[in-house]
Design a protein that fits this description.
The chain starts with a helix and ends with a helix. A 3-stranded antiparallel β-sheet has the order 1-2-3, covered by helices on one side. It has 5 helices and 3 strands; from the N terminus they run αααβββαα. The protein has about 110 residues and is mainly alpha-helical.
Length: about 110
């Protein structure tokens, strides 16, 4: 997904953080979201960054377990082979609010593969 590739490029160039589409890299993403949250910017200021992080997490899930992207009415989800739908964008927003984790979403979606 384009948003995921943009997030990877932005993190590499701007923050000097390499994201490699591994489940382990989501630890770094969760920490970056936590750091942003601690700085306290308004949601509107970080919305596109969170969208990129959500897309990245979704792409990690797709690559880890053979899931696929689903879209409807402007919303995007990841559908795992067992038929469940996952919303990494919402999880990124929840992480920014202090109640979510992209790493744990990936673990749950992939069955810790």
């Amino acid at each position: 997904m384009r948003w995921a590739a943009d997030a990877v490029a932005t993190m590499r160039e701007g923050a000097r953080v390499r994201l490699d589409y591994s489940a382990q890299s989501l630890w770094r993403v969760d920490r970056m979201i936590e750091e942003i949250r601690r700085e306290g910017p308004p949601y509107a200021a970080v919305e596109s960054v969170l969208r990129g992080f959500g897309a990245y997490a979704g792409e990690v899930i797709v690559r880890q377990c053979g899931a696929e992207w689903w879209a409807s009415g402007g919303d995007h989800w990841v559908r795992t082979p067992d038929g469940r739908l996952w919303d990494p964008f919402d999880e990124a927003r929840r992480a920014y609010g202090g109640n979510g984790s992209l790493r744990l979403l990936c673990r749950d979606a992939t069955g810790s593969r």
